[in-house]
Specification:
Chain A: This is Tripartite tricarboxylate transporter permease. The complex is a heterodimer. By secondary structure, chain A is an all-alpha fold. Chain A is built from 23 helices and two strands. In chain A, strands 1-2 form a two-stranded antiparallel sheet. In chain A, strand 1 and strand 2 form a beta hairpin. Chain A is globular and about 65 Å long. The chains are: A mainly alpha, B mainly alpha. At the A-B interface, helix 8, helix 9, helix 18, helix 19 and helix 20 of A face helix 1, helix 2, helix 3 and helix 4 of B.
Chain lengths: ~500, ~160
């Protein structure tokens, strides 16, 4: 069978001692940084990105994927233990998980999260192996109009999960697109927005932008929050779920996995959407809905599985279409480009070892998380209890070293400082920077596909509405935007983010 | 009647968007615009910047018309010190080397915290951290950064 052969190829790549080691180091580092409160996966990956530069492409991507899962798992740990979700998708975990921790059941909550994530990860990995080739085949039929429409949809979808006012998020997309224009226009050779600085002629570096806005900007914003994090640093006991627990969590895990796998493929932060969806689904199906919010184990199992399944399947559009569905995938694309790989439908055929190796290592990474993180929980608890004022100078220095090492220029370090101020400013003004990063990565691609689509259509904009796939995608984007603008949905969306 | 800002966050993000959009338009119109069939270098940027100007204006109007949350206190000290810390790292890295850059920029960053006191513990910690960084990044990962910068070149060569 084809899939079997492909998976075996993946096993042969990812189970080499070196790559297993990179996967291992990635998951551990990702968890270690991810548990630090206030550092979401984006900041974690951006910070750790430079250590993968010297590696061969397969190892670099395997390590990055490991960092990603680690960061996500670390984020859940922090959410459960200290009720400080680092990203939207672990907000839901914090609701019941933290209640469990307060009742002295932190161990149960953590192991449920780990087991749920592992089962979800395993199933989602298989789904990727089955569906990615199919989607890549479809993607080869995509013309420039379809790609452009898909990107528009992705950008609109990204604001669904962005906190803050809708208008602000839409504006951030435009700012991101505009920042993506900086540099030499590949078609005409015209220097755009470089202000005569030769260092800008290759464009802004996305690492500089990401670390400035997500790393430095967040630190400045966090300085004024002096919250107490010592709450849950007592010993975590009772790690393994009981037989009774298993009965309670199995169905939520499977339901969460199904929901997450589907929503994760959709552009625009599907993982977060999936965990919200799974939580309300479990609450509705539960025999004990009054327990939700008071520490229901189902309320941890479902969303965590959904979240992890979504995180896995969000690799599908990235690997097959070369389109990021969220800002983490935007970073992964950036990393691939640094490694000299142009993401897209051809990766699977031109670099099968890389493609399948990455997929199998996803599963390996999930297994490592399960096996290693439960025993290491004491270490993570210690990391959480490090006071922020010791931590942030270290984070700043890591960011500075990292950003310098991308291009070996101090220019980038200064750029990061500027984007840090900008990141603080937009946070203060209720505009979330995640859509900006996505738009920044998509900007040059969007321009290129728009140019090509219009060239083929001789300048006729109706091309996007005549071609059925593109028309469908545009329609979905318009409907999505319209629903977001509906007063009732808008209110609900703002309520959800109020709780953060 | 004086104009009153009712929703500060809307108003100021509007100003920001308007400024960025206007700048984008101002510089963008100097690039060849082309036609839809043959998009020039200015085509996409001008459209994006134009949309940004519109969004900015809408946000400003909303900020003037609708009551909204205030921006709240701005941590100028934090902005200044954190930025200074990053800039100091950039300035010092080449001439003074990694160790000095880390210690100085670490001290500046740490002083953004009110509870920070300069003492031997802080210095010792920073030097130890700098040594670890040098080991991991330069010796271990082989990043092309010099541990001691060009200013010290005469001392050990």
């Amino acid at each position: 069978m084809d899939i079997f052969a492909n998976l075996m190829l993946g096993v042969s790549v990812s189970f080499t001692p070196a790559n297993l080691l990179y996967c291992f180091v990635g998951t551990i580092l990702g968890t270690a940084i991810g548990v630090l409160p206030g550092l979401g996966p984006v900041a974690t990956i951006a910070m750790l990105l430079p250590i993968t530069f010297g590696l061969p492409p397969e190892s670099a991507l395997i390590m990055l994927a490991g960092i990603y899962y680690g960061a996500q798992y670390g984020g859940s740990t922090t959410a459960i233990l200290v009720n400080l979700p680092g990203e939207p998708s672990s907000v839901v975990t914090a609701i019941d998980g933290h209640q469990m921790a307060r009742k002295g059941q932190a161990g149960r909550a953590l192991s449920t999260a780990a087991i749920g994530s592992f089962i979800a990860g395993t199933i989602a990995t298989l789904l990727i192996a089955v569906f990615a080739p199919l989607l890549a085949a479809v993607a080869l039929q995509f013309g420039p109009a379809e790609y452009f429409a898909l990107m528009v949809l992705g950008l609109i979808a990204s604001i669904v999960m962005a906190s803050g006012a809708l208008l602000h998020a839409l504006g951030m997309i435009l700012v991101g697109l505009l920042l993506g224009m900086v540099g030499t226009d590949v078609n005409s050779g015209v220097s755009r927005y470089t202000f005569g600085m030769p260092l800008l002629s290759d464009g802004l570096d996305f690492v500089v932008l990401a670390m400035g806005v997500f790393g430095i900007g967040e630190i400045i914003a966090n300085l004024s929050n002096t919250e107490d994090r010592s709450a849950m640093t007592k010993k975590v006991t009772g790690l393994l779920p009981t037989r009774d627990d298993w009965k309670r969590i199995l169905a939520p895990i499977l339901r969460g996995t199904a929901l997450g796998s589907v929503l994760g493929v959709l552009p625009g932060g599907g993982a977060a959407l999936a965990s919200f969806g799974s939580y309300s689904l479990e609450k509705r199906l539960a025999r004990n809905p009054q327990e939700f919010g008071q520490g229901a184990i189902e309320g941890v199992a479902g969303p965590e599985s959904a979240n992890n399944a979504g995180a896995q399947t969000s690799f599908i559009p990235m690997l097959t279409l070369g389109l990021p569905s969220n800002s983490v995938m935007a970073l992964m694309i950036g990393a691939m480009i640094i490694q000299g790989i142009q993401p897209g439908p051809s990766v699977m055929t031109s670099q099968p070892a890389l493609f399948w190796g990455l997929i199998v290592s996803m599963w390996a990474g999930n297994l490592m998380l399960l096996v290693l993180n439960l025993p290491l929980i004491g270490l993570w608890v210690k990391m959480i209890s490090i006071p922020y004022h010791y931590l942030y100078p270290i984070i700043i220095i890591f960011c500075a070293i990292g950003v310098f090492s991308v291009n070996n220029t101090t220019f980038d370090v200064f750029g990061m400082a500027i984007f840090g101020i900008a990141g603080y400013a937009v946070r203060k003004l209720d505009a979330e920077p995640a859509p900006l990063l996505l738009a920044f990565i998509l900007g040059p691609m969007m321009e290129e596909y728009l140019r090509r689509a219009l060239l083929f259509a001789k300048g006729d904009f109706s091309v996007f509405l005549i071609r059925p796939i593109s028309a469908g995608l545009i329609l979905v984007a318009v409907v999505l935007l319209a629903t977001l603008l509906l007063p009732s949905i808008r209110k609900k969306r703002e309520e959800v983010f109020q709780e953060e | 009647m004086a104009i009153k800002v009712r929703g500060e966050k809307d108003f100021y993000i509007g100003v920001l968007y308007l400024a960025l959009g206007a700048a984008g338009l101002w510089f963008g119109q100097t690039y060849p615009f082309g036609t839809p069939a043959r998009m020039g270098a200015g085509f996409f940027p001008v459209i994006i910047a134009g949309l940004l100007v519109i969004f900015g204006l809408v946000a400003i109007c909303r900020g003037l018309a609708v009551d909204g949350p205030e921006v709240g206190p701005i941590d100028f000290k934090g902005i200044a010190l954190i930025t200074a810390s990053v800039v100091a790292f950039g300035l010092l890295l080449r001439p003074a080397g990694l160790i000095v850059a880390i210690v100085i920029s670490g001290l500046i960053a740490a002083s953004a915290n009110d509870r920070f006191k300069l003492g031997w513990q802080a210095l010792l910690g920073l030097f130890a951290f700098a040594a670890c960084c040098a080991l991991v990044f330069v010796t271990g990962l082989g990043l092309p950064i010099s541990i001691f910068g060009t200013a010290f070149a005469g001392l050990y060569r």
